[in-house]
Amino acid sequence: MKLHAQNSHNDHVGLEPLGEHHRAELQVACAADPQVWRDLYPHSMAPEHFDAAWTRMMAQAADGSWIPHAVLVEGRCIGMTSYIGPDSANATVEIGGTYYHPDHRGGAANPAAKRLMLDHAFAAGARRVQLNVDAINHRSRAAVLKLGAVQEGVLRQNRVVWTGRIRDTVVFSILADEWPAVRAGLDARLAGY
């Protein structure tokens, strides 16, 4: 499995390797919902933490532990999503680190971006794609289930988030042999937008 940052697009979104030219627009998108960083994310990209988070994310991109993508709508960066911890030996990867400007939640942006990310992961040889969600993040849990992922279980008290809260993580996955049916479901869903 060989994953890398890529340019791709469909009728709803474009994905590009996250870079300095996306920084200002991503910062604006992240500042649009400061409460979400306090309540639901393991790290903060709120205005007062954005620069440090950006520096950390770029270092992770450089070492290959994260492969972040800007999510573009009409050429504007409205959020981000990433491959996390690609494991070529086991043909597994996580998709996460996803955030969208509030104006783009609940519409086509997330399923369209995930469609591109999943397609690239499975085309690159992934056997399993994992998605991890904070147990209290009911909106994201529902969105992952709507993608067609299978909920595997809950990792209890497995992570301390930046605020000090101890989180439970709900683990979902999609396997390579499930991808054709999941892809068909996503395509049908996206055709409705």
Within CATH, the superfamily carries the name: Gcn5-related N-acetyltransferase (GNAT)
Oligomer: single chain
List unreliable stretches of 5+ residues. none
User: Roughly how much helix do the residues carry, as a percent range?
Assistant: 25-40%
Number of helices: 6
CATH C-level name: Alpha Beta
CATH fold assignment: Aminopeptidase
Q: Kindly report the average pLDDT value.
A: 96
Q: Give the spatial strand order of the biggest sheet.
A: 1-2-3-4-5-6-8-7
User: How far apart are the termini?
Assistant: 32 Å
Structural class: alpha+beta
Overall morphology? globular
Helices and strands in order, then pairings?
Elements: E1 8-9, E2 14-17, H1 23-31, H2 34-39, H3 50-63, E3 66-73, E4 76-87, E5 92-100, H4 109-123, E6 128-134, H5 138-147, E7 150-160, E8 166-175, H6 179-191
Parallel strand pairs: 5-6
Antiparallel strand pairs: 1-2, 2-3, 3-4, 4-5, 6-8, 7-8
Helix pairs in contact: 4-6
